């Protein structure tokens, strides 16, 4: 990822990192919102923090993101706190989507570690906003079932609770149901390795693009 293409937007209470696709394609782009994990909160410098593990990492994923708009807010303090900022994340996403003419039916939410927990929390609070969810190695099972399409990337943090995740979210193994709305995969990696592999996996980006909010 070209760091010069990233823009820091300094808003309160959450600043965010923005990557906008090239204009002039004639198509409304999809938007992907990334929620970071514990160690990437402020006061760590935002570009350093949000290019560590997610889709904005300096090493690009297998699928080019040139056609996407990506936004990554940063928490002001460490913790499993994304639920507190659900309205703020919603406002940021909708404002960026309007500014860049995004497809309102293709707004996607992903997050790593505590950010994966945030994916569950925001999905439960905002089922009308997201077209599909992509939690990457979350640390806890959601409090209740979630009806939205989900791709769960399991790693070291989630592995011990895999059965509970699969049952609560009604997931099928990706190699048996890659076109399903509810899938999981586990590449056998550790926590950080799971994020690295997941965000380079072209299958997931293609899967996300196949999901549209009614």
Structural notes for this entry:
By secondary structure, the chain is of the alpha/beta class. The chain has one domain (about 5-210): Rossmann fold, CATH 3.40.50.1820. It has 7 helices and 9 strands, in the order E-E-E-H-E-H-E-H-E-E-H-H-E-E-H-H. The chain has helices at about 45-50, 85-100, 115-125, 155-160, 160-170, 190-200, 200-210; strands spanning about 5-10, 15-20, 30-35, 70-75, 105-110, 130-135, 150-155, 170-175, 180-185. The protein has a 9-stranded mixed sheet, with helices on both faces. Helix 3 (about 115-125) links the parallel strand 5 (about 105-110) and strand 6.
Rg on CA atoms, Å: 16 Å
**The CATH class:** Alpha Beta
How many helical stretches? 7
| DSSP summary, beta strand count | 9
Gap between N and C termini? 32 Å
Alpha-beta classification: alpha/beta
List keywords for this structure.
globular, Rossmann fold, alpha/beta, 214 residues, nine-stranded mixed beta sheet, 7 helices, single chain
What's the arrangement of secondary structure elements?
Blueprint: E1 6-9, E2 16-19, E3 31-35, H1 46-50, E4 69-73, H2 86-99, E5 107-112, H3 114-125, E6 132-136, E7 150-154, H4 156-159, H5 162-169, E8 172-173, E9 182-186, H6 191-198, H7 202-209
Parallel strand pairs: 3-4, 3-5, 5-6, 6-7, 7-9, 8-9
Antiparallel strand pairs: 1-2, 2-4
Summarize the structure.
With about 210 residues, this protein is of the alpha/beta class. Helix content is about 30%, strand content about 20%.
């Amino acid at each position: 990822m070209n760091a010069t293409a990233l823009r820091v937007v300094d808003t309160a209470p959450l600043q965010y990192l923005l990557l906008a696709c090239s204009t002039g394609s004639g198509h409304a782009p999809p938007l992907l919102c990334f929620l970071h994990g514990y160690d990437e909160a402020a006061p760590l410098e935002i570009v350093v923090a949000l290019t560590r593990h997610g889709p904005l990492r300096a090493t690009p994923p297998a699928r080019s993101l040139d056609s996407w708009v990506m936004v990554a807010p940063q928490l002001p303090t460490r913790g499993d706190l994304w639920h507190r900022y659900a309205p703020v994340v919603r406002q940021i996403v909708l404002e960026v989507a309007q500014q860049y003419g995004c497809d309102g039916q293709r707004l996607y939410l992903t997050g790593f570690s505590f950010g994966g927990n945030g994916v569950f929390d925001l999905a439960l609070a905002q089922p009308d906003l997201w077209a599909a969810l992509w939690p990457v190695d979350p640390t806890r099972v959601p409090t209740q079932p979630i009806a939205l399409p989900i791709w769960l990337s399991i790693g070291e943090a989630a592995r011990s609770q895999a059965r509970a995740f699969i049952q609560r979210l009604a997931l099928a193994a990706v190699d048996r149901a890659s076109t399903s709305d509810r899938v999981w995969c586990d590449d056998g990696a550790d926590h950080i390795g799971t994020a690295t592999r997941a965000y380079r996996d072209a299958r997931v980006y293609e899967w996300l693009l196949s999901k549209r909010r009614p």
